[in-house]
Amino acid sequence: MAEEIKNVNAKIDDLDAAAKKYASKDTVISIGGYEFTPAKLMVVFTLVSSLLGGLYGAFEVYKDYQSMKKKIAEYSAPDLSGFDKRLAVIEETSGKTADYTRDIKTDLKSDIRRNETVTEQIERSVKQSQRESDQDLKVVTKTVDTALQRTRDDMDKLKREIDTKIDKLNSSVDSKIQKAIDNPLSGK
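The chain above was modelled as a monomer; its predicted structure follows.
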């Protein structure tokens, strides 16, 4: 146990010595003939990593934009021919029912009452079917219009965000370059 404590104390002493050697104000690290302080290295590392992160983010946004553009280009409207067929069948059925009811009226009075009830039920069904078909068509049209508008709005928003980020990045890089140029300690 005592030996483990000695090992830990020795490692702590080694870390303290390394910190004094590499983290002091006067430490100068030479890389490729250029001398850097630890603070300058940290600033350079931060600047390079921020720039690379920004470029990667811009690439990802552009890739998503291209993917979305491809999906929009490949969009095809749903097939609504089934609704037209159903409407034709309903119109045909209602026409036949009306003819049949007129023929029966002339024959029997009791059948007239029964057939009127049947006819009213069928007419309600036809009207309900027509209403449902009209509502379904309106819902589909509204959904497609809403999706297209939402996609357009998202693309516009994304473009504005990218433009804003690029402008901010350009301004930031320009100001940092200007600061470096204006710095009297930059080696003029």
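The two ends are 59 Å apart (CA to CA).
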